[in-house]
Write the structure tokens for this entry.
Amino acid sequence: KSFLNHTAYLSCYFPNSQKTDIKDLRVFWQKEAVEVVHEIYYGEEKHDNLSPKYINRTKMDMDKWTLQLLNAGIVDEGQYTCIIQHRDKGSPKVIHTSQCLLHIIANYSQPEIAWLHAGELKPNEYLNLSCSSSGGYPEPKNMTWLVSRENKTDRLMGPMDVSQDAVTKLYNVTGRLSITVSTNILTTISCVLHLGGQLGSLFSVPLGI
């Protein structure tokens, strides 16, 4: 995983690396087996075969056998393959391959609750709320609402609209909730954006009614 516009690190370490002279190796990285991302040709960096979008964006750390992909963007997501060939009696022979799957992460803004209601709230009248978060990636899983009254908290689901910016590919999300609230008991409402996997969840500032 790599954060948007940061450097992504793709490892290609292989066990015999310390015993092998880099001048006897051809090392190249491919994306989805079609685009050449980086190439080291018997000790020298070679740029002739590179896909244009990777020119001046990659560096190979030969001590750690790690490719650095600078300014990683959402279009860089995908599977990368590292192939190492050894010059064996003149004809190159593949001695190592490894694969990395790159995922890009962009942080969503803190969810923010908006009051979609004009005037004073009357008893047993429906209260309409929205909750919005923007500029994130990947697409979130869902949004839930936490409604707390006295010592009880209910978890509610509401509709969630998701839109993706055509240029940046980042997502904006808006959830909605329609609920009746008692006018003589304090009700606290929060919305929670669930990002899925190991990315966790984002909580809004609670709204007290």
Q: What stands out?
A: DSSP finds no helices and 19 strands in the chain. The mean pLDDT is 88. The chain has two domains: 2-105, 109-208.
